[in-house]
Write a sequence for this structure.
């Protein structure tokens, strides 16, 4: 399979995750600025679970599939044993991502829900709010990366058009 075809598949996967994540964030909007002491109801828990799952899937798909393939399509020589941080720095240098540091913050966001804080409602509310904000930022980053791909690799879109006709 050609890299352009793989990218089209990966972007479709990321688009699905971003769309469902965005819908879950809309559902969470009513209680996004949680006050300490709020009781997390089952409906809220289901939405948080969905946000956490789609956040992880989107982040993983972007980091493991889309971003390395951008470097390949851009013909950016990078060592096979390069660290992910080195790849992020290269992606920032070519303009595919606005900031390598921003991507690193998503690991912190992802870990925000790993702790429950049952006896510390202020910390729990802060962690949930940090996570919801980070999820919205991840969607925005995906849209930026997608725009970069559309602008720099038009052949990715051409492949999908060929299959349609």
């Amino acid at each position: 399979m050609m890299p352009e075809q793989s990218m089209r598949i990966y972007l479709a996967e990321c688009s699905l995750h971003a769309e469902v994540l965005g819908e879950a964030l809309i559902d969470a909007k009513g209680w996004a600025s949680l006050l300490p002491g709020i009781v997390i109801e089952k409906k809220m828990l289901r939405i948080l679970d969905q946000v956490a799952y789609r956040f992880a899937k989107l982040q993983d798909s972007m980091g493991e599939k889309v971003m390395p393939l951008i470097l390949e399509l851009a013909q950016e020589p990078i060592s096979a044993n390069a660290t992910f941080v080195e790849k992020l720095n290269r992606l920032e240098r070519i303009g595919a991502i606005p900031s390598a540091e921003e991507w690193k913050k998503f690991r912190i966001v992802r870990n925000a829900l790993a702790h429950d804080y049952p006896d510390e409602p202020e910390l729990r509310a802060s962690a949930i709010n940090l996570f919801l904000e980070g999820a919205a930022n991840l969607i925005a980053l995906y849209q930026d990366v997608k725009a970069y791909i559309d602008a720099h690799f038009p052949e990715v879109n051409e492949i999908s058009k060929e299959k349609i006709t």
Summary: The chain has one domain: 3-164. DSSP finds six helices and no strands in the chain.
